[in-house]
Amino acid sequence: MSTSRNARASSSAHCESSVSRFLLLAAYVAFDAGKVLLQREAPEESMVGIVLAAVSLVVMPLLVSAKRRVARGIGSKALEADATQTAICTYLSAILLGGLLLNATLGWWWADPVAALIIGADHRS
User: Strand, helix or coil at 125?
Assistant: First the structure.
């Protein structure tokens, strides 16, 4: 087998492995969030999670802007796609922050697992 074919086969196997791990993680998140909702388990407040999500909402848009500027400058479609993925992560951070804040400030215990389900169902990432 040629080196090029070996590289393609290795890349394909790595991609399939990554997809499998992502699907397993998504299934676990859905199962755990569903269990929490059904059993009405109130999650603990997470100040660390709130701070990290808030910082992400400030930093991620700056990163998106920088990645897009560099992508245009060097003509990189791959970096442009990465910037789009980072923009999606910004929205996911907003959902996460919403769930954490609603739980911490209003005691809406269900907001955290619902946010997890929304994030897990996001099929664009």
Answer: coil
What distance in Å separates the CA atoms of residue 24 and residue 92, rounded to the nearest whole number?
19
Cite the DSSP H helix spans in 47-122.
Answer: 47-74, 77-106, 111-121
Q: Which residues contact 111 (CB under 8 A, 6 or more apart)?
A: 98, 99, 100, 102, 103
Q: Give me the phi and psi of 39, to 5 degrees please.
A: -90, 0
Residue-wise pLDDT tens digits, 32-47: 888 989 999 888 888 9
Q: 59 pLDDT exceeds 90? A: yes
Could you state, in order of their start, the residue ranges of all structural domains in the chain?
3-121
What pTM did the predictor assign?
0.73
Listing DSSP states for 11-60 in one string gives HHHHHHHHHHHHHHHHHHHHHHHHHHHHHTPPPPP-HHHHHHHHHHHHHH
At CA 26, angle to CA 44 and CA 17, rounded to 5?
Answer: 135
Q: Which phi-psi region, left, alpha or beta, contains residue 45 (left: φ > 0; alpha: ψ -120 to 50)?
A: beta
3-state secondary structure of 3: helix
With tokens 């909702």, the residue in question is 37
Note the residue count of the chain.
125
